[in-house]
Amino acid sequence: MIAPPAIGRKSKTPSKFKQDTRSLKRKRNADDLESLEKSVQDLGLKVEIKDFKDLPLSQPTASGLEASHFKTLTDIQSKAVPLALKGRDILGAAKTGSGKTLAFLVPVLENLYRKKWTEFDGLGALIISPTRELAIQIFEVLRKIGRHHTFSAGLIIGGRSLQEEQERLGRMNILVCTPGRMLQHMDQTAAFEVDNVQMLVMDEADRIMDMGFQTAVDAIVEHLPKKRQTMLFSATQTKRVSDLARLSLRDPEYVSVHEASTSATPSTLQQFYIITPLADKLDTLFGFIRANVKSKIIVFLSSGKQVRFVYESFRHLQPGIPLMHLHGRQKQTARLDITSKFSSSKNSCIFATDVVARGLDFPAVDWVIQIDCPEDADTYIHRVGRTARYERAGKAVLFLDPSEEEGMLKRLEHKKVPIQKTKAREKKQQSIKAQLQNMCFQDPELKYLGQKAFVSYTRSVFVQKDKDIYNINNYDLEGYASSMGLPGAPKIKFRKGEDAKKAKNVPRGMISSDDESDGGEAKTKKQEVRTKYDRMFERRNQDVLSGHYSKLIANDDAGETNDPHGDADEDNDFLTVKRVVPMDETDSESDEAESGPAGKLIEGVGRDPIVIDSKRKEKMLKSKKQLLKLKENGTKLVFDDEGVPHQMYELEDEEVFNRRGPAEKQRARFVEDATDKVREADVDDKELAKAKKRERREKRKAREAAEQAGVDDEEVPDLVEDDDHQDPMDLLASLPLDDEEEARPPKRAKKWFEDDSDDERKAANKKKSRVIETVDEPETLEDLEALAAGLLK
Prior knowledge:
InterPro entries: DEAD/DEAH_box_helicase_dom, Helicase_ATP-bd, Helicase_C-like, P-loop_NTPase, RNA-helicase_DEAD-box_CS, RNA_helicase_DEAD_Q_motif, SPB4-like_CTE. Pfam families: CTE_SPB4, DEAD, Helicase_C. Residues 81-255 form the Helicase ATP-binding domain. Residues 281-440 form the Helicase C-terminal domain. By secondary structure, the protein is of the alpha/beta class. Among the domains are: 43-256, Rossmann fold (3-Layer(aba) Sandwich), CATH 3.40.50; 269-435, 3-Layer(aba) Sandwich (Rossmann fold); 600-666, no CATH class. The chain is built from 31 helices and 18 strands. The strands form four sheets. It has a seven-stranded parallel β-sheet, sandwiched between helices. A seven-stranded parallel β-sheet has the order 10-11-9-12-13-8-14, sandwiched between helices. Strand 15 and strand 16 form a beta hairpin. Helix 3 (75-85) runs parallel beside helix 4, helix 7 packs across helix 9 (214-223) and helix 20 packs across helix 24.
C-alpha cells in the first residue's frame, strides 16, 4: 500500500532545479568578476611579471593562452599588459618579433570581459592594421587566444564582398580592419555604429601614416567617442606617430624596450651588406639563391613590377628552389594562398615588396635579402624583422650600390644597427645576362615586363627624398638595362640634366646636319655599338607588345622617337620636355639646304601659313578635328575647284576701304543699291505672276468651249508648249477611271517590307484623289449634291 505524500511537502520540479542552477552560476560569475576587478586594481605596476599565470586574467583568456602555448611574457608584454589592464592609454615601441600582438589582444579581451560585453552592446574594440596580411595574422591570433570567449569578432579588409561584410557588421564586438575599408563602412553601412567603442588599437602606427592613411585615420578617430582607451604600437616611433598620439591619447604611458638594449634589431640577427653595382645585382642574387636552396628566403624589391619580372625570369632559369611572389597588385585570394604556402614551407624563396615588411610572422625564415636599398633606416629595421623572431637566429644581407654605401651606413649607424661588410664568393657567382637576353627575345611579354620594371625602379629612385643616398645620375642605368636582358635602356622622362634637355630640344634636321659635319663619325660609332639583339628587337612581327616596347627605346642619343606625342607609357610619366622648333630664318634655310627640299606652304587656313614638312602634319590636315586647332575662331572654310581652302568671309584691306569714302556714305550707298535691287526684283515677280494667271484663265476658257462643242480633251491643243508651265490637271484628267480595268498596268510584286494593308491604304487614297480631282468645279445645286455623294462613298 502506497502511503500518501506528507502534508506540506513538495518535490522539486526539474524547471525549479534549473533556475536554481542558473542563479548560482550567475552569482558565482559575479563573484569571480568582482574578485578579478579587485585583483586588477591591486596589480602593482613596478612588479616584474614573467608568466601569464601571474597576471589577473579571466578563465576564458587563461585557457586560450594555455591552449595556444603562450606561457612566458616578452619584455614589451610585461610592461604594456598591466598598464592596459588598468585602462591606461599606451604608446608602445619595441623591436620586430617581440610579441606586440599579444600586448594589445589580451587587454582587449579582458577589458570587454570585465565590462560584461555582449552582442547586444555592439562594437566594443577596433583594431587597425596597415596591410591586409597583418590584419589577417592579428585576426588568427585573436581566434586562438579568444576561443573560449563568447565575443563575436570580424575581419574587415579589401578584396572581399562589401555586401556580405555589411550584413554581419552590426553583430560584431571586435573588429580587425584596414583603414580604407573601415572608413568605407562608416560612410556606406547604415546599420554600423561606433558610438559605443571602448578601445582603439593601431598596430604599426608609423606604417599607417607612411602609407597615406593619415586622412582615413583622422576621419575614423573623429567618428569614435572621445571617452575610450587607445593604444598605439610600432617598431619605430616617428614624428607622425607622435602627432597622432598627441591628438588621440589621454595622458599616455610610453612603453619602450629600445633603451635597455644597444641595438634596434634583435641580438640574434646577423646583418651583412655587399657592395654590388646596379648592373651586377641580378647575377649576385641568382648565385646566392643557387647556393642556399635548402633555406627559407625573403627577397625585398622596391616595386611590384620588379617583383613580377624577377619572379618570371628566375622561374624560367630554375634555380632549384620553390619560388613565390607577393605584391599589392595581386588579388586577395592569391595573396592569402601565397602567404599560407610560404608560411608552411620549409625551403622556398619569395620575392616581395614592402607589403610584407611590417608585422608579418613567417616561421623559421633563414635569410632576408634586400636587393633594393630601403628608403630609410626604419624600413630596413622592419624588413630584417621578418627573421630572428622570438629570440631565434637569422641572417640579413643588404645589396648596396657604390653610390649608396656612405649615406645608408650613416643612417643605420644613427639607429644603432650593427652591420658588417662582406663579399660574395667568386666561385658561387654566375652571370645570367646572356640567358635573360635570350629569354626576352623569345618571349616579348617578358621583355615588356623588363622595361616596365626598369622604369618603375628608376622612378622609385627619383622620388626618394634623401638625395644624399639616392641620386639617379650616379647609377649605371644602361648597365642595369643590359643586365635585365633589354637591348637598350627605356627612356626616362623624369630624368633631369642639361644634356638631356639640350638633346631633346635639338630638332631632327640639326641632328642629321651635325652627324654629316662630323664626317660620319657619329654614324660609324652608332653602328659599332649595335649588336645582333638590336637588330632582333627591330623586327615588327614578334608580338603585339614589341611595338609598344620599341617606342620606349631611344633611337639615338637625342631621345628621338616615332611617337609624336612622346612616350606611350600607361603610367603617364611627368616632367616631359617637348621638342622646340627653331624660329631663326638663317638656321631654317641652312637646315633646308642640308636636309632636303622645303616643305609645302598652305595659306588661308589660319593667320599664318602652314608648313607641311612631315607626314605627321600632312596627316593632321586630313582630320577635321586637328584642323580646327589651326583655324581662327569664328571662321568657315570653302574649297575652290582646285581644292585650295579659302575663308567664306575675308576681310578687306583697310586702305582700299578708305579710298571709297567715309564709312557712313558707303553704308548709305549700299542701302540705296540694295533697295533698287529689291524693287526691280519685285516688279519682275509681279509680271511673272500676272502672266501665269493669264495663261490659266485662257486655258480654262478653251476647255469650257471644247466641252460645249463636244470635242475630247485630247484634241484640244495646248496653249502653252513649255513643259515648265504645263497644267498638272491635264495629266490627272487623262488617267483611267475605276471601271477601266483593261487600261490598268499590271500589278507589281510586293517588296519584303510591304503587306496587303499597304496596298489597300494606297488604293483607297488613290480612289479618293481621283474622285476629287476628276470632278469639275460645281456650278449648280445638282453638281454640289453629286460631289457630296461621291465623297461619302
